[in-house]
Amino acid sequence: MSILTTNRLTKSYGEFKAVTDVNLDVQPNTLHAVIGPNGAGKTTLFHCLTGVQRLTSGRILFDNKEISKLGPEKRSSLGMSRSFQVTSLFLEMTVRENLQIAALGVSSIDGFRFWSSSASTVKKTAAAVDYALETTGFENRAETIAGDLSHGQQRMLEVGMALAQQPKLILLDEPTSGMGVDDIPMISDLVRRLTKDITVLLIEHNMGIVLEISDKITVMQLGQILVEGTPNQIKNDQRVREAYLGGETEDA
């Protein structure tokens, strides 16, 4: 059974259709990538899926529940989490404190009382924070100030904050954005490993990463799905080669 499906998802701004009739089918514990050039509608699609923007028409089912009219907080409570293209951390706080805030929920007043010695607060967040620290490899940097981390490590921490919400589905918006070549394998390996426990829906411009770690790829163009398939199918699709790979193919 699919964990996320959309039926003719459409988002319009007046006469302009940013996303038109998009039908997604995301399977549990897979890495599903969404690619396409700037203006293809990828970020608008993510905004609609997470409730940041309201659909113009269509339906969204998450974990077999209709969520088309739910707000971001409710979708998060159902098990949907997201990281953004622009890093958004509490830079003067430690890695652990950032994860604690995420675990409690930034919209909740309790999320800003992480310093409390309350046993109930500690119990509520400890398991989620420990899971995020272990998964991202930050166990030995838990007390490091986030602002002292490298850019690549900050991107990893942002993924960790999404994980601290203990989601069933995590949506990652260009997690390698702005990262140096040496840091990219670190986060691509993390993203691939996440599917052991959860489902990943990924926007990424780095085609090499997408082809290497994805189970399924959806290619968008002008707000619509151009083609969809496995990495090998996408790499060898004539339309995709012409639009995104320069018309050349590589050995499988």
From TrEMBL:
Keywords, comma-separated and alphabetical: ATP-binding, Nucleotide-binding, Transport
Occurrences of domain ABC transporter (ranges): 4-247
Coiled-coil spans in chain: none
GO molecular function: ATP binding; ATP hydrolysis activity
Residues annotated as transmembrane: none
Gene3D superfamilies in the cross-refs: P-loop containing nucleotide triphosphate hydrolases
Domain of life: Bacteria
Cellular component GO terms held in the UniProt record: plasma membrane
SMART domains: AAA (SM00382)
InterPro entries found in the cross-reference section: AAA+_ATPase, ABC_AA/LPS_Transport, ABC_transporter-like_ATP-bd, ABC_transporter-like_CS, BCA_ABC_TP_C, P-loop_NTPase
Pfam families given in the database record: ABC_tran (PF00005), BCA_ABC_TP_C (PF12399)
Protein name: Amino acid/amide ABC transporter ATP-binding protein 1, HAAT family
Organism per entry: Ruegeria halocynthiae
